[in-house]
């Protein structure tokens, strides 16, 4: 396979290979030739020649073609491709874990329609980042783009397999929803892969028994142009339709999935957004109590440093060890496996499970929320309030040209008033009397844009707002 490509192979690969995945604009640096070269590099790096590689894709117009190009590059280097077709990202993790095979998932997650990308996994749904193999895949792909992809002694084959029913049955085996009280649930799939997986897992589309759930579907049609709104529930504007529908239908709650359906956001019966930290605390408590009841004594759970303080407090109150980590899904997957943690939660609504090979699964988190909520009689807003005792700002982004200068202003303003921690960005924790509300904030530079990301938490809303406004003024100079 000798591609006819320009001599800027290094620049093209550098443009699309990010810290944790591949992401770029379709037809620009991300082309069939680039994808085939990455496939060949991936097979070589993970030693998949003579073995299986799982390939799945989302509903974007470019995804089937890219999956085919990947299969061509992978089979040329001797891997047998197991094509699982349309799937969510966590469905591809299920295939990788259950088959113990490396995997490639074609998706750009919540990015607009012009984008696509690849999320790689080692066998057993283990993450791959720049530091753990992605840079080597990129370097091999540069050579293959420039010199062509030589055929392995034995070319691989392509087999099509549908894993949706097995995926749905496995999730049902982890969280039993059959005994919950009847619930009406509005689900906004955002025209993404939740439109495929929600009917299978929470409904009867995969041949599973009916659950006591009335699902009200919103934008379940698979459409990679995202005609209704961007499939990024982290942005409040993209939750408006769900919030309105929950109230109009008199539903008990709402769920919103991003484009590749690996993240899930929750809305209460009043249309209020439930903070992902509250979801993390609820699920952490359930998972800790489950394994402790099964006889485990040494239990731990992970939270990144931007989740609410209440997440760590909940973990520790349940008799487990709270492990604080940096932000980043590949990093947290690694920590899940290093520590044997039963659960991991991020502020961005990524939720990780030991029983799911340490990988993240938004659907599984949603099922835990449904199970917990469905076992009691009060409204979801009351349950969420119990797990949201403090005030969080959410992530606030500021365009900053001189990050060191902004850091200097923050150090000068808070010296003597706070402790400083540079574990991941800059975390500043107030030195307060016991009678005063606590506060902390974290400032992190973006990896890809001239942005500083600010997250603030306070013991009450007034304290949080005061610190938030002071730090924003310092950041923006």
UniProtKB/TrEMBL annotation:
Signal sequence coordinates: none
Ranges for domain Alpha-D-phosphohexomutase alpha/beta/alpha: 17-131, 166-271, 278-389
UniProt keywords, alphabetically: Isomerase, Magnesium, Metal-binding, Phosphoprotein
EC number: 5.4.2.8
Molecular function (Gene Ontology), one example: phosphomannomutase activity
Record CDD domains: PMM_PGM
Domain Alpha-D-phosphohexomutase C-terminal: 395-473
Cofactor(s) annotated in UniProt: Mg(2+)
Keyword Transcription regulation: no
Pfam family, one: PGM_PMM_III
Family assignment from sequence similarity: Belongs to the phosphohexose mutase family.
Protein name, entry field: Phosphomannomutase
Originating organism: Agromyces ramosus
């Amino acid at each position: 396979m000798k591609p006819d490509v320009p001599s800027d192979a290094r620049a093209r690969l550098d443009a699309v290979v990010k810290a944790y995945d591949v992401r770029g604009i379709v037809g620009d640096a991300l082309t069939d030739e680039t994808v085939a070269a990455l496939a060949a590099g991936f097979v070589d790096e993970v030693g998949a020649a003579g073995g299986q590689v799982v390939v799945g894709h989302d509903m974007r117009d470019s995804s089937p073609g890219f999956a085919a190009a990947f299969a061509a590059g992978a089979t040329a280097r001797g891997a047998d491709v197991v094509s699982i077709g349309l799937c969510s990202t966590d469905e591809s993790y299920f295939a990788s874990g259950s088959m113990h095979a490396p995997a490639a998932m074609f998706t750009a997650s919540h990015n607009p329609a012009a984008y696509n990308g690849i999320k790689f996994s080692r066998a057993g749904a283990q993450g791959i980042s720049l530091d753990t193999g992605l840079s080597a895949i990129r370097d091999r792909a540069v050579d293959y783009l420039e010199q062509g992809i030589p055929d392995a002694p034995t070319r691989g084959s392509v087999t099509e397999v549908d894993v949706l029913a097995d995926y749905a049955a496995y999730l049902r085996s982890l969280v039993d929803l059959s005994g919950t009280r009847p619930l009406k649930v509005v689900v906004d799939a955002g025209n993404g892969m939740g439109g495929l997986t929600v009917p299978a897992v929470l409904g009867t589309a995969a041949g599973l028994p009916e659950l006591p759930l009335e699902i009200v579907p919103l934008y379940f049609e698979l459409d990679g142009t995202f005609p209704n709104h961007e499939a990024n529930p982290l942005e409040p504007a993209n939750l408006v339709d769900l919030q309105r529908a929950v109230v109009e239908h008199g539903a008990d709650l709402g769920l919103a999935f991003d484009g590749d359906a690996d993240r899930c956001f929750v809305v209460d019966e009043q249309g209020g957004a439930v903070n992902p930290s509250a979801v993390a605390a609820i699920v952490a408590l359930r998972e800790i109590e489950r394994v402790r009841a099964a006889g485990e004594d040494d239990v731990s759970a992970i939270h990144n440093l931007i989740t609410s303080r209440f997440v760590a407090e909940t973990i520790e109150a349940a008799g487990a060890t709270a492990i604080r980590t940096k932000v980043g899904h590949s990093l947290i997957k690694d920590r899940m496996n290093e520590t044997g943690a039963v659960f991991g939660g991020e502020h961005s609504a990524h939720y990780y499970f030991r029983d799911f090979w340490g990988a993240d699964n938004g659907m599984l988190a949603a099922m835990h929320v449904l199970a917990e909520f469905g076992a009691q009689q009060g409204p979801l807003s009351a349950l969420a309030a119990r797990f949201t005792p403090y005030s969080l700002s959410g992530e606030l982004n500021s365009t900053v040209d001189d990050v060191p200068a902004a850091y200097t202003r923050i150090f000068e303003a808070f010296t003597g008033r706070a402790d400083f921690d540079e574990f991941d960005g800059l975390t500043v924790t107030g030195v307060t009397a016991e009678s005063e509300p606590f506060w902390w904030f974290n400032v992190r530079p973006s990896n890809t844009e001239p942005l500083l990301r600010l997250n603030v938490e306070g013991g009450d809303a007034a304290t949080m707002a005061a610190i938030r406004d002071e730090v924003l003024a310092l950041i923006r100079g």
